[in-house]
Amino acid sequence: MDADHVADDLESVLLTEDEIHTRVQGLAAEIGKDYAGREVVLVGVLGGAATFTVDLARALPSQVEIDWMAIRSYTTSKRASGSVRLLKDLDLDIADRDVVIAETVIQTGLTMSWLIANLRQRGPASIAVAALLRKPDTPELGVPTYIGFDVPAGLIVGYGLDYRGHYRNLRCAAVLAPHAVR
Asked: For the Phosphoribosyltransferase domain, which residue ranges apply (predicted)?
């Protein structure tokens, strides 16, 4: 879906489809260089990172296995509570393997920190994070991190990110207008 189809709902387009595509290619090149000669397990975080995970995997210059996790973070009064629930676990054994977690946006770092700690307990050879977007004031994660773009605060939709189940199929990344937040 193009931004034109939902223009009235958007405050601004942050990143065009071409800008995203170019940066995903760049992230894949960085990861490919750092993991040359090694097969990576790419762990996509459902559902927002499905688009990014697949695009990143297709851009990587070597073989990659893909697996998925689904987790839910809980918030109270619009703030992250730090409480996370695992909804879907990995099917692959990641012991002694190089793992790159693919996420579309890192907001507070709480969910990603939980995910890193959870995966560390499984004995991977290494863990890294690849995120297309990073919001302001996100703390260091303590693992190698590949970031596509630093973006401002605001409700971002598109390229897999949704608001109440809508806008995931928007090909760009955009800030949702306040009047569209119901």
From this structure: 18-141
